[in-house]
Amino acid sequence: MDKKCESGNLENKSCLEELKKDYLIIQKKYSLPSFEEFNEDFQIEKLAEIETDFLIREIRKFIAEKFSTYLRFIEAILNPVNSAIFIFAIIKTLENKDKEKLSEIYKKLAKKEVEILELDIQFSEEKEVEFIKNSYKIWKEIKNELLEIVEVINNNWDKEVEIVKKGKGYFG
């Protein structure tokens, strides 16, 4: 990316345009989804603030960050030891089939977490691209499953959840 697009520059629009141009090059080279598709799911427009010679690695990091966030959230639901109280409230809204679905998603995300370790240790543009393509495909699969579970939580929240009632805590 051009030097004028360093972090803190007020010409953010031009930095975003520069990023889109750079992305178009690797999109064509590796048959990646459009910038708009990636940006919608992984907010890669934030890369406009980062100067790098390895755009593909930075894109992978955004995917990894999102996957890690969901992995930790699902882990808290499946194994709520030392979790925030609201996690216990969420658990009360879920049925066993929902927890099983979360368990399957967790396995997929955990596998990606191990792949991330390898990519962090040794850079390989080809492996980065493979990870990005595969991760995008997996995200498209699990995104709808996660939305279904969030819908279950939302639908059951008011009838199942009583975090604080009459001055009592969750366990009181």
Structure write-up:
The chain has 172 residues and is mostly helical. The protein folds into two domains: 1-51, no CATH class; 54-163, no CATH class. It has six helices and no strands. It has helices at 12-30, 35-42, 55-78, 85-93, 96-121, 125-160.
List keywords for this structure.
single chain; 172 residues; mainly alpha; 2 domains; 71% helix
The domain count comes to 2
Low-confidence stretches: none
* Helical/strand content category: mainly alpha
Give me the number of helical elements. 6
Helix content: over 70%
Overall 3D geometry?
A: elongated
Largest sheet: none
Give me the count of strands.
Answer: 0
> Could you tell me the radius of gyration in angstroms?
20 Å
Q: Whole-Å distance between the termini?
A: 56 Å
Proportion of residues in extended strands: under 5%
Q: From N to C, what is the helix and strand string? A: HHHHHH
Mean pLDDT: 88
